[in-house]
Amino acid sequence: MSQTADQDDQNEIPGFLYQWDRDQALTQYRCFLCGADLAGGRTDEHVFPQWLLRRCDLWNEKITLLNGTLMAYKQMKIPCCSTCNNEHLSRIEQAVGDAFAEGPEAVAALDATTLFLWMGKIYYGLMFRELSLLADRRDPQGGSIVSPEFLTTFRMHHLLLQAARGAVRWQKDQHPASVFIFQAQEPTDPRHRFDYVDIINFPFFAIRVGATAVVAVLQDWGALAQAVTVPAFEAARELVLHPQQFREVAALAAYMTTLFNRVPKHLLYAGENHVDVMTLPLQGMSTKFVFDPFDVGDYAQVLSHVTGHPLEELYDGRNIVTLLRDGDNQPWAVPWPADERQYPDIRFMQR
After folding, report:
1. Nearest-5° angle of CA 259, CA 199, CA 203?
2. Greatest alpha-carbon span in the chain
3. d(Cα 339, Cα 299) in Å, to the nearest integer?
4. Model confidence over 86-119: pLDDT tens digits?
5. What does pTM read for this prediction?
6. Strands annotated E in the chain
7. How far is 52 from 58, CA to CA, in rounded Å?
8. What is the sign, positive or negative, of the torsion defined by CA atoms of 160, 161, 167, 171?
9. Taking the CA atoms of the chain, what radius of gyration do you get in angstroms?
10. With contact defined as beta carbons under 8 Å apart, do 17 and 3 qualify?
11. pLDDT at residue 4 above 80?
12. In 143-242, where does DSSP find H-type helix?
């Protein structure tokens, strides 16, 4: 049995092991991953894994939620059944945690699906956690920070996460994500050896842990990695990224994600104990390139948002600050240490 699906498909898939309307949990009483009812027993899955919180001393550090309020990282937990938590996800966390402990080469050597599932779980988990939090604590009737309706727009992402428990597979020559791995500098304070960037309207996640930075467009099916060459990414691969440079790389990848102009189409096949996903060619019948034209002014807005630096100090209408390449377009090693933050004068950074 097969069905054609896209990211906005709201229909149930009759006869399939996984069914969107049934298995995507939208309450705190079901497992966020498999959708099982938790009346018989619940565990809590940390959105950011415990090994990361320990390694970077983040237990009592605060994360800023979408409504601007703060929550301790240790409280970022989502409902999970024992099997998904202690078997499927634990196996992924063990592999990824060990790789990050070794460094960038070990992370790059990870199974691509394992790394995708790890990044994808954190991205989805952040939204799922906010499903249970009031947008305004003064107004109990005002709804949650993330609505159930909004979370359903990530049904395809949730379907792909089922690969963590072996319920979904995709073609060997296809992969959901474009993933870029970089070396990173390590600040003195363990808390500053961690950083992350996400965007809410498309599955994108970037994370820096210790000596490794990973940037992933989680559902472009390899378009950014295969269809276009980004000179700044090439430069970044030759650098050990300063924390500011990591933010710039994340901002650029996030902006490129917004330029992706395809809605991937998939054929879903029902196997005996899993769903096979085959993605149709992104180019399709269109002659239009899969990314819209790059607009430096729009990118500058994203760069300002991601770095927290004022727009007017990054972009003057013509020139934009970059910390990745010098005036000769060669990779630029930031001359100040990882514990410091600086920006050169925009007049000397023409791009």
Report:
1. 75
2. 63
3. 26
4. 999 999 999 999 999 999 999 999 999 999 999 9
5. 0.91
6. 2-6, 43-46, 62-64, 70-72, 77-80, 168-170, 178-184, 194-199, 204-209, 212-217, 240-241, 265-270, 275-279
7. 8
8. positive
9. 20
10. no
11. no
12. 148-151, 155-161, 223-226, 231-237
